[in-house]
Amino acid sequence: MRLIGIDPGDKYIGLAICDANGTAARPLDTVIHQSRAVDLAAIVAIAQAQEAEGFVVGLALGNDGAPSPQGRAAERFAEALREASGLPVWLQDEWGSSREAMTLMIQAGKRRRSRREQHHAAAAAAILQSYLDATPRETPQGK
């Protein structure tokens, strides 16, 4: 199942995509926030172009395990995305995704400017990969 990962933010919305087998995520794009309606339309258009079958939205949790204020905003965003796209939307704890994304970009030898530009999409890839790793996939039967 091809999924779009989303790192929702106040100014930028990072997007990532996984392969058709649902095993590996990679950064895709960054949407600059304009308004909820414009942002959703852009994300839905990207999802359609990529033939995505659903979304995974990063959910910020507080120390108590409950959604933080940003997490509650992500929940509202996810619900609006579900309505706008007609596709399923899952929430995934985004703890550590930004740090993981930065570490991977440094290890890959990305320059500082490139890391700054790709940070949000890379964080979305970390969120999506976390979801993929935590979600069991069906194994083919037979043979």
Characterise the protein shown here.
By secondary structure, the protein is α/β, with parallel strands linked by helices. The protein has a single domain (3-134), classed as YqgF/RNase H-like domain (Nucleotidyltransferase, domain 5, 2-Layer Sandwich), CATH 3.30.420.140. Helices cover 45% and strands 22% of the residues. The chain has four helices and five strands; from the N terminus they run E-E-E-H-E-H-E-H-H. Strands 3-2-1-4-5 form a five-stranded mixed β-sheet, sandwiched between helices. Helix 1 (36-49) packs across helix 2 and helix 3 crosses helix 4 (112-134). The longest helix is centred in the last third of the chain and has 23 residues, at 112-134. The radius of gyration is 15 Å and the shape is globular.
Fourth CATH level, the homologous superfamily = YqgF/RNase H-like domain
How many β-strand runs?
5
The number of helices is 4
State the shape. globular
Please indicate the count of domains.
Answer: 1
Give the averaged pLDDT, no decimals. Answer: 86
Strand content: 15-25%
Descriptive keywords:
alpha/beta, Nucleotidyltransferase, domain 5, 143 residues, five-stranded mixed beta sheet
Short description:
The chain is an alpha/beta fold and 143 residues long. It has four helices and five strands, in the order E-E-E-H-E-H-E-H-H.
